[in-house]
Every structure is written in C-alpha cells, then in structure tokens.
Amino acid sequence: MPRPVALDGCEFDMTQVVLTDLTKKYLGATAPAVDRLNLECESGRLHALLGPSGCGKTTTMKMIAGLLKPNSGDIAFDGASVLHTPAERRGAVMVFQNYLLFPYMSVGENVGFGLKMRGVDKQTIRRRVAEMLELVRLPGIEARRPKQLSGGQQQRVALARALIVQPKVLLLDEPLSNLDAHLRDEMRELIRTIQQQMNITTIFVTHDQEEAVVLADRIALMFDGVLHQVDAPQRFYDGPVSARVARFFGGANFLPGQMHNGQFESRLGCFAVGQGAVLNGPALLTIRPEAIQLCAAESGSQQKNHLPGRIISRLYTGANTRVKVQVNEFTLTVIADPHAVDAARTGDMVTLYLAPERLWTLPIESP
Amino acid sequence: MTNQTRLTHLLRWLALSALLFWLLLPLIPLLIWSFAFRWPFPLLLPESWSLRAWQIAFSARSGMLAALWNSLVIAVAVTLVSMLVSIPAGRAMGMHRFRGKRVVEFLLLAPTIVPPLAVVLGIHVLFIRYGLADTRLGVMLVHLSPIMPYAVLVMAGVFANYNPEYEEQARSLGAGPLRTFWYVTLPAIFPGMMVAGLFAFLISWSQYITTLLIGGGFIKTLPILLFAVAGANDTALTAAISIIFVIPALLLLLLTARYLTGEDAAAGGFGRV
Questions:
Q1: pTM of this structure
Q2: Gap between the Cα atoms of A66 and A24, Å rounded
C-alpha cells in the first residue's frame, strides 16, 4: 500500500528495524554470507554496518530493502514482519554506491520517479522535486542530465530521489567512498544534517571505520557474515570485544598473559588493569597506541605499569608520530604528539607508562 | 573546430558515402533495367524507355502486392516472436551462470552451423505430420530457426553489459516488476532490441529455401515471386520486383542506423559503472 505523501514539510515517522537470526546463503557458497544476524536499529538514529569487503554487510542491507530474500530469520519494522512485503512496498529505500541515476531521464524525472510510481499528480511532483533538490543544496537543476553532473552532485541527486518518497528506512551503500576527500566532509555533514532534521532511521554500509565513527550513532561491526560488536563508536576504541575488533579500529598492542584479581601477569611483568572483557584467566592485554605515554628513560621504570624499552623506529605522519618501542621480545606501537617526541631518536632508551584506566583485556584468540 | 575533429568528420563522411555508394550502386543498373524497353547489346543506355515493367509489377496479375503483404506479415510476426523469446533467453545467457549453459549455447548456435537445407527437410516431415506444412504459420516457425541464434546472441551481448542494480533501485523506489521493466529495463535494452529486431526482420525477409519447402509454393513471399519471375526471363519485371524487394530492407536499415553506431549502439545497456 503506498504511503500517504505529506505535502508540506518533511514529516517522517520513526521506524525501528529489528533483524532476528537473519541468515543468507548464496547458491553454491560454502559459508553463509550472513549468519544468524541479530540487530536492533533504534528509530530515528543513524546506524553503520561496518566491516571489510565481503563481510556480508551489503547483503544484509539488500535483505532489509527487500531486494534479497533471506534463507531464514526475520526482518521487522516497528514490530511487524516485512519479510513478505515486496521491495516496492516496503518503504526501505536504498541509495546505491554508484548512485544509479537513470541515464535517459533528467534530474527532475529521476528525483520524481518514486512519486510517479505512487501515482502522485505532476504538479505536486514538480513542487516536491524542487523542495528535495533544495534540501540537498542543488536547487534548479531539474532539466539537467545525470551525465552532466559531477560524482558528488549525482550522489546528492540520488539522495534526494530516495528522500522524496519519505522512506521508513533510508539505506545508504558506502555513501562516502566514491567521493574525493573534500567532498566527503561536505556529504557527511549533509547526511548528518538531513538525518537529524528528518529523524529518519538510517542504516549505512561502509568498510571505512573512520567513516562509521564520524557519521553513526551506533556501529555494528561484521566479520565473515557474523556480527561481532554493536556499540556506540567510542566503545570500539575503549572496549573492543576481541583482538580482531581492536585491530580493525587501529589497535596494535596485544600482550598475552593471565588476569587475576585485577592484576595482569605477563612476561613483561605485572600490571594493574582497570577493566576488560576478561576478568579472570588467560587474556590478551591491549592499550591504544595513542594512550601510551612516552617518558624519559630514567623516570620511574621500576614503578607499576612502567616499562623500559628502546625506540626501534619512528614515523612522522604530520598530525602525530608513530613510534615503535621494543620491550624485551615485544614491540609496542605508540602514537605520540610530534613535539613531545622531538628529541627522541631511534635507539634511545625510553620508559612507557600504561595507565591502568586505559588498559583493557581481551579473550585469547583461537588460532 | 580543431583540425583533429575536422579530420574525423571528413573521414566519417567519406566512410558513410562509401557505404551508401556500395549499397546503392547495384541498384542503379536494376533501376535502368526496370525502365528499359529496348536495350540492344553495345549501347550504354537503353534505346527506348517504358513503364511497362512497373505497371505489370503493381497489377493484380503479377501477385507482387500479395507477395509483399505476405512477406511483411511473416517478417513482422517472426520479428515480434523472436523478440519475445530472445529477451528472456538473452538475459539468461548474458547475466546468469547455470548448469548446462554450454550445451544451451551450442544448441542455440547449431542452426548457423548445420546446412539449412538438411534442417528444413527434417522439419518438413514433422510439419506435414502436424499439419503445418503449406501454411503461413509453418513458414513463420521455420523462419525462426535461422533467426534465433542471432537474436539471442545480440540480446545476450546487451545483457552481459547490463547492470541489474538499476532494476533494484527502481524496485526500492516503489516500482513493481512490470513498471520496473517498462521504465528501467526496456529503455536500457532498447537499442539492442532494435538491432536484434533488424536482424530478425532481414533474415525472414530474405528466406527462400525454407519458405519454398515449408510453404510448398502455396505461401508466396517476395523472394518466391522474384525467383519465379527471374525464371520467366523478363529482365525488366525482375529488376522492378528486385527494387521493391530491396527498398523495405534499406528503409529499415536507415531507420535503425543510429542504434548500430555511436552512443546509442547496441552494446549500451547502461553498462557497469
């Protein structure tokens, strides 16, 4: 059933999306592309489905859109299953990575396509198209052809074409990955603004953790078709659930040992640990490269959570300097302010301070 | 205009002229013959002219108009049917991988390899049994056998270069399957359909042996009439009917020429971005 079209303003109802045990196995594939995925997307929020390419995130998105049929499991919008609602009536509109503007239609016809399919009269379509192009900051380009637009403009037209039908759920496939760096910022801000203005439940897919962090309210991280962690962006830095998650977010320091009564015992000694995913037994100790403090060699190397080491390499990246420090047989990566480590040279002895509140334990990875 | 573009324009113009010349050159002697009354040997042009051949051609006696109509009906029907089959078949061949695809490919190409006479003789036996021999329907069906390989291969080429995500995009925006086909698939494959349709029409239009055997002389198309007239040794009438035979094909070629070259070429189909 076509949804009524609000003629004034852009009122969207907020829709909650719940995926239950969603599974998709392609014909002839050995492993499922998506394996028993459980995910709840709060209404009116911006969610990221994050993962390396081939992890099943686009498959998940297409299932939500109704373009792929899951083998098992359920998809519910606001508590009602939409599994048997065909794509054209589901109200989950997808914006593809390569925009897919219909090449033989003008920009105006492209944006108005969804309303035309809903039988809206021409005059209303014309007005709403103008409104939508204004919204994506491309007013008055109705008569142009998609070919005449830049990639960024095509992307925004594609966004307008999706928003005009007032979708229950907006699905964006890699919304920033085809854009130049300066356009990315502009597009990210536009998506954020529109999403907040309209309170539209939005799910986007990306392989870029930075993109997910800056855009999303919540991130769902997938590897090999399996959901690994669903959290607010900051938690992926402060409290990853596994070494794999930590690595995906740039974690580099992992130290095997035993967790025992708030103390972590390892070959590099004993550490006081504030928190972690493992509170007892074998564990991996991790700390963000930017959380390690680099001090002069003598300062308190005998104290708790201090480690003496030797700088084996340093890489200046502009905003910061990546320093690799050898501590016994382990190498720790430190990201430091360039001015703070100005004087340090390769081969110098230093002391590393691992603050207890920045330490985090992870389960040992199965090989 | 830069020198470069001027040169390409010139080359294109030359190529087009050469093509037209090539196509039209054989028609000039035919045209002269059709108006010739007396044309003794050493003369370059006829001694006297006449409209006799054209008058006979358009008279009911010659059966030309009936044959033209027959040819048109058969060619149009066969073209439509070949389109109906080759769009889904081409989509399957061009876009999907499936078990036994090689075998299907081979079977599709087989009519271009096996001598048509052998095929038609075999079909004839069957058609007699089914009561399709000596009927227009039988002739249409037999025309499809040399047409389908070309029609399906052209459409397979179109679909190999087609991005089905455009259809998903349309579905997602609220278009049902039928409207998705109408608004998205059809415009994308239209140039390819024109080319496949042109092939289908022209192949049907020029069938002789298949029409003769299955039609058994009852279904008179233009080629059948042309052979009969040519055998009767009336050069002027043969020339006139030859021209009538060539003109629809030429017109069709000109009308669809823009789908054969340039941006609208058959390989269009949106392409994968």
A1: 0.81
A2: 13
